[in-house]
Structure formats: structure tokens, C-alpha cells
Amino acid sequence: MLWKTHIESVEPICKVLHIPSTFKMVEMASQQPSMASKADECLLFAIYHFAVFSMMEEECTKKFGQSRAMLMQRYHFATRQALVNASFLKTTEISIMQALVLFLLPCRHFYDPHTFWILTGVAVRIAQRMGLHRDGEKLGLPPFDVQMRRRIFYQLLPLDGIASQMSGTGTGMMPDTWDTQQPLNVNDNQIWPGMTETPEEQKGATEMIFCLARSCVGKFFLRAGKSMHGAGPSEFKDYNEVEPLICEAERELEEKYIRYCDVVNPLHFLTIGLARSAITAMRIRTRLPKVRNQTVTAAERRELFQLSQKIIDTDTALYAHTSLSKYLWHVRSFFVWGSWDSLIFVLTSLRRSDLLSPTETDAAWSKVEQMYNSHSELLESKGALHIAVGRLTLKAWDANPPTSSVPEPAFITTLHSLRKGKLNSRAEGQDSNAPTLDAKTDTMSPIDPFPASDANALFFSFSDSMGLDIGNDFDLDTTNSMLWDQLIQDYQAQGGQQ
């Protein structure tokens, strides 16, 4: 059952395995458990762990009669122990590396950013020792091995990059330290162990389409960063310098991937949303510095507002797509690149009564309401970012409500109620829900300790929490915009985005 869940919900997003050969191992292990090697055990538990992670609470209860948190804790422990038993720190086995990557992908939800960065760093070092940073074709390896090594490496690259950014250490692996080529655009049935000829790359959509489109986006993000001559990850000196590169990325995504997507296919629909929102997010990020520096013109501000609305529309459309429910583990909590920036900019713009016409104001509030309807965590979470966005929403509503604000929308009523409750708690000296930057977003409890070893020590987290007073007003036109960046970065570090 968990294997089927992994194939349907996880594998299309994280193409690390070769399903036909892995299925043989799963069948053998289920029929003859004693025949499973330590490497097989690692991979099995990593697959089951990720499968449970991809499931909703109701699904876990219905299928297994246990809570998701309980199942997650069980398989998390089992996978860790299997990795330790297999001496993963010394491994040169591809299957153990697959298990480690599959284990780490959902683990950003359970470890603080610093610990997670250490763990991905360990995975990078193991990969380098195995030579995954060098393209297998140049090393003369068999065609099947070449493709599997590439698949692993191209999952590890963004994983380490995200961990590096969220821990505040900058970028991950530098481009000049590896030469591994992107995996070929082929289906699993086009490759197999023992094959002697390089598979012919397919033109059009394959099982790899989501991963390859994401890889394409990552390549251009990296190039855009380099073109900014050392500017920070979210700062660009002049968007006119980067716009040609963004247009090039847009053309490549459209020609190589989007044109072959069938919107009826959930994975293709998700791929379209990911690719187009990434391009829009690039354009937003290149323009935000002018807003912060208060050098933005009225025309540029309107352009930014339209780009932000485009991101929100994509987010809402994808989240409302019922066939994407199996990918909710990935799309949960503002999955579209640029969603936070967009929502914050739209709310900030709504506070300015001189920017939008009444019709535009009404349309913008309708989009904000859709975001709140799609993302219940905006009202339910006690995290610093969610509280700050809620406060900004109320200020925008008070300053510039829609022309027809009666009856009051449910999300505004709820925000008023939450705000009133917080003020009452403060008045009574019981502000126990004050947000901190290390607020957790998942229900899984801390992992219970087990016998110490060098490998086990890698899996224990440490917390470097810091309080945040969000009593001050926030606006993208002020120096407080840096606090918005910190809030967004922290939320992502806690697993708000995959």
C-alpha cells in the first residue's frame, strides 16, 4: 500500500528511483524479508517514510488506524536506524544514497535549518566520494548507472541549495565543482540494468517532465544570481540586466516542456504552474529593490502589482485543482515560487488608496480572499510570518476595503477575532502564543533518542530560536522590508515550501 502511494504521490515529483527494478526488490523483500540486504532495508524504509509524509491525516487513519504523526515517527526512526545499520557514512552503494536523499527530502520539516544544512552537507560529501559530482558518461560507466547517478545528483543539488539558503550560509554546491549532466528525458521503461547503449532521449513529455522543468528553472536562477555580480539572493542591481536572461528561461521552458503538457494530466498541470510562476517570481524579485529603495515609479509599481496578482492566480488555480490532491505534500503551504512576496505586495498596495481604481481594489480583495480560503494555515498557524501577514491584511482592509464590504468576509472576521484574543491575552499577561522564528509547522513530535554513534549524532537537532516582536507596522516601502525577508526565509526553513 505504501509502495503504491510512493509511486503515485512522491516519485513523479522526486524522480530518484527506477521503478521496474525497485519494484522487484520490494516484492522480494515483502515475500522473503530475511533475503533483504541492509541497503534494501534503507531504501524500503525511506520509501515508506516518504509515502506516509505524502499522506493526509484522514488517509492515515482510514488505511492504517493510526495518526499520521505516529506513523511518521515510526518510519522516521526505522529509516534512521536502517541507515546507521548500513554504515551510510562509508557507503558507495547507489541504493543507500537513494535512501538518504529520499529520507532528507521531507526532513526539512522536522529539523531546524542549521541541523538540516549539516545533514545535506553530509549527503553532498558522500555523493562526492562516490563521484556523483562527475558525469558518469565521462567516467565510462554503464548507461543505466549514468542515468541513476544523474537523477540522484539533480535531487541533491536543490536540496543542498535550499538548506544552505535557509541556514544563512549562502549557496550550496558551486557550479565549478561539478560537471554532472542533467538526466535524459526518458521514461523508466527506456532504461534498465545491464543495458549497453545510451538511451535515445525522447522529445515531449515523459515521467521526468516535472523534475527536468524544475532543473531548468534552477539553472537560470543560478545564472541570474551570477549575473548580478555578487548581489544577495533576493537583491538585483538593475532588472534590465536580468530581463534578457529571464526571457531566455521563459522560451526554453515553453519550448522544451510546457508546449508538451496536457492540462488534464495532474503532473503536467503542476509543471505548468511551477514553470510559469517561477518566471514571474524572477521578474518580481528583480524589481522589488526599487520598491524598498523608494525609487519605483507609478508605472513600475503597477507592473509589480499585476505580476503579483498573476502569481496569486496561479497559486489559487493549482490549489483548487482536485486532481492535485495526491501532490498536496509538495504544494501545501504556498508552494508557488513568489507567493509570499506577491501576497505581501498586493496587501501593501491595497493600503494605498491612490494606486488602484475601485474595480481593481475589489478584484484584488477577491484574490486575497481566495488565498485565505485555499490556505487555512494563514488563519490557523501561530507562526510569526502568518501573524504578521494577518496584521497587514487588517491594516489594508481598514485603509482601503472593497466597495461592497458588507457582509464582512469570513477571513476578515476571523482575523479580527484572533487579533482581539491576542490583545486580551497580552492584557492579562498570558501571551503564551507569541511567535518565534523556530515555530514548528508539523505535528510530529521530537525524535526519541537511541544509542549514540557517529552516525546517530548527525540526526539530533539543536534549536537556535529567537523571539520576534511584530508589534511594529510592516511595509515594503520601509526598511522593515528586511524583516519580511527574514520572516519568509524562516517559514521556508521550517518546511513551508518543497
Calculate Rg over CA atoms: 23 Å
SS-based class: mainly alpha
Shape: globular
Q: Assess the beta-strand content as a share of residues.
A: under 5%
- Largest sheet properties: none
**Count of runs of 4 or more consecutive helical residues:** 20
- Cα separation of the termini: 24 Å
Number of extended strands: 0
Q: What level of helicity do the residues show?
A: 55-70%
Instruction: List the secondary-structure elements in sequence, H or E.
Output: HHHHHHHHHHHHHHHHHHHH
Uncertain residue ranges? 228-234, 432-474
Mean pLDDT: 83
Question: Which features characterize this protein?
Answer:
498 residues; mainly alpha; nucleus
Describe this structure in words.
- The protein starts with a helix and ends with a helix.
- It has helices at 2-10, 19-31, 38-54, 57-64, 68-85, 94-107, 113-129, 143-166, 209-227, 239-256, 266-292, 298-320, 328-331, 339-350, 358-374, 377-380, 384-399, 410-427, 454-457, 481-496.
- Helix 6 (94-107) runs antiparallel to helix 7 (113-129) and helix 8 (143-166) packs across helix 20.
- The longest helix has 27 residues, at 266-292.
- With 498 residues, it is mainly alpha-helical.
- The protein has 20 helices and no strands.
- It comes from Cudoniella acicularis.
- Keywords: Nucleus.
- Residues 423-442 are annotated as: Disordered.
